[in-house]
Design goal:
Blueprint: H1 2-9, H2 33-41, E1 46-49, E2 57-61, E3 64-69, E4 75-79, H3 83-92, E5 96-97, E6 105-109, H4 115-132, H5 135-140
Antiparallel strand pairs: 1-2, 2-3, 3-4, 4-6, 5-6
Amino acid sequence: MQMMVQRFMAPQYTRHAGLPSTGCGWHPAAMNRDEVNTLCAALPGAELTAPFGPGHDIWKVGGKIFAATGSEARGVSVKCADVETAEMLRTLGGCEKAPYFHRSWVLVPFDSAKATEIEHRVRDSYRIIRAALPKKLQATLAS
């Protein structure tokens, strides 16, 4: 028992260590702003813009935002399929309401979300935004 407690209290583990992932729980091996930018840049038709000034990385596809990192770089804001999904992610742990965005958006913190979770949320947000674009515009984007 003592050994198990020490394992979960070790610095490389945080709040939800040893528990199944809930979508945005705290885990080691988080991504950073540069890694998120690299991921977004690799998505077909994605473009980096700065409509809110320097220090804000705003990623768009077809002119619509799918990921945003603010000047504080606490995490990446992404769109969820609906408000209920966003509320579930906030309730189950780790994710926060994305500042300045609709309730269907969440902020996935860099310091607490596993890299695979961040990647999943960014790709899912991209998929949601791209699917909502007019079919003609979708057809012009690379696959």
